[in-house]
Amino acid sequence: MKNLLIGFAVLMFFLVPGCKSDSPTGGGGLGGGGGGGGTGSVTFTISVVQDQQGQVFLQFQPNTSATITSIKAVCQAINVDETVTDNSGTVYNSNNPINIGPLTVLQTGQQWTFTIKGKVGSATGQDYTVTVNYTIPAGVGGGGGGSVNFTVAVVQDQQQQPFFELKPDKDVVVNTVRVVCQALNVDETLTDQSGSVYNANNPIHLGPVQGLQQGQQWVFTITGKIGSTTGQAYTVTVNYTIP
């Protein structure tokens, strides 16, 4: 099956059919709900799963065969209100769920609402619309069973240029850092493919940074591996206010 590349303005989701051999597997807290549209009725179970690389996905598992034409995802906590579409006509079921991701923004306790539309049975079946409220379960945000804490600070180099310093409380590899500041219209993701191990004595620095002002709200979402490039995956979100 093919992967469907969907560009969310905020999340950059993929829709990934679940029958691929490299699709996400495993679970992290099940939740779901039902609804109806037309004369057809479908119920979805939602869970948080990971692929073999430790990347996090949301998995949507219908209780009966159905196509999915759109999924609207809303999370007020991170200002997400986006819709992804699937025009492939693929039929999903409990053995062939659909996965959205990879995601780096999920945190325990977040409230999400998904509105799912499609056809029952096939692309020519009855219409349905289902709304599911889902709370991200405990343990998500630490990634792959691993837990890391980062301290964020603003530091200066010898030329007095400001940098963000991200200091982990243990040895970690950092793969990506997503940096968001709504006040400056910043939403960027930085990658580090070096495999370098960072810790409290060897923090990672981002910058030099322009436009910092006291009171600005910044959000850093950090993904990587604990200990080494072969360690457990983690995802950490840190909220930081410029002092």
* Beta-strand segment tally: 19
How do the strands line up in the largest sheet?
A: 1-2-9-5-4-3
Query: Helical proportion?
Result: under 10%
On the 0 to 100 scale, the average pLDDT is 78
Would you identify the regions where 5 or more consecutive residues have pLDDT less than 50?
1-39, 141-146
SSE order, as H and E? Answer: EEEEEEEEEEEEEEEEEEE
Number of helices: 0
| Oligomer kind | single chain
Instruction: Work out the strand percent.
Output: over 45%
- Silhouette: elongated
Termini separation comes to 49 Å
Helices and strands: which structural class? mainly beta
Gyration radius over CA? 20 Å
How would you characterize this protein structure?
The model is unreliable at about 1-40 and about 140-145 (pLDDT under 50). The N and C termini lie far apart (about 50 Å). The strands form 4 sheets. This protein has a 6-stranded antiparallel sheet with strand order 1-2-9-5-4-3, with no helix packed on it. Strands 6, 7, 8, 10 and 11 form a 5-stranded antiparallel sheet that branches. Strands 14, 15, 16, 18 and 19 form a 5-stranded antiparallel sheet that branches. A hairpin with a 2-residue loop joins β3 (about 30-35) and β4 (about 40-50). The chain contains no helices and 19 strands. The protein has strands at about 5, 15, 30-35, 40-50, 55-60, 65-75, 80-85, 90, 100-105, 110-120, 125-135, 150-155, 160-170, 170-180, 185-190, 195-200, 205, 215-225, 235-240. The radius of gyration is 20 Å and the shape is elongated. It has about 240 residues and is mainly β.
